[in-house]
Amino acid sequence: MYDKQGSVLRIETTIINPNRFRVYREDARLFQAVLQGGFALQGFRNKHIRAALYGDEPDKAERKRTSARVTRLLSLLRSHKLIKKVSHTLYYRATKFGQHVMSTALRLRNLDVALVGS
């Protein structure tokens, strides 16, 4: 913290070991679920993505927790303009930009996996 003439200018944080702060995302599985052909016309709902990512949870508390997680993922995709909400419904659709970005990401990921495997 810097203190200049009695006012704080900024606070800095140093991370000693950044390897501890890896972000594990399930982007590939999410992108595959969103880009399924069955959702092209009508779109998809939270429960469709939840079923694709986590399967059916018999426990009500677990279902609520995964529903909240999928809601956060959908809002993240919406903020990046990869999906849009269908007006007056609970459905979402992938945008043209989103289809392009997500399919390209999946292709590059599969290419990277194939290169590492050989």
Which tags fit this structure?
Arc Repressor Mutant, subunit A; two-stranded antiparallel ribbon; two-stranded antiparallel sheet; 4 strands; 118 residues; mainly alpha
Compact overview of the structure:
The chain is mainly α. The chain is built from four helices and four strands.
Beta-strand content estimate: 5-15%
Structural class: mainly alpha
Query: Helix count, per DSSP?
Result: 4
Average pLDDT confidence is 82
Give the number of domains: 1
The shape, in one word, is extended
Beginning-to-end CA distance, first to last residue: 50 Å
Radius of gyration: 20 Å
Would you count the extended β strands for me? 4
Q: What do we call the CATH homologous superfamily?
A: Winged helix-like DNA-binding domain superfamily/Winged helix DNA-binding domain
Largest sheet: 2 strands, antiparallel
Structure description:
This protein has about 120 residues and is mostly helical. The chain has one domain (about 25-115): Arc Repressor Mutant, subunit A (Orthogonal Bundle). It contains 4 helices and 4 strands. It has helices at about 25-35, 45-55, 60-80, 95-115; strands at about 5, 5-10, 85, 90-95. It has a two-stranded antiparallel ribbon with strand order 1-2. Strand 3 (about 85) and strand 4 form a beta hairpin. Helix 1 crosses helix 2 (about 45-55) and helix 2 (about 45-55) crosses helix 3 (about 60-80). The radius of gyration is 20 Å and the shape is extended. The termini are far apart.
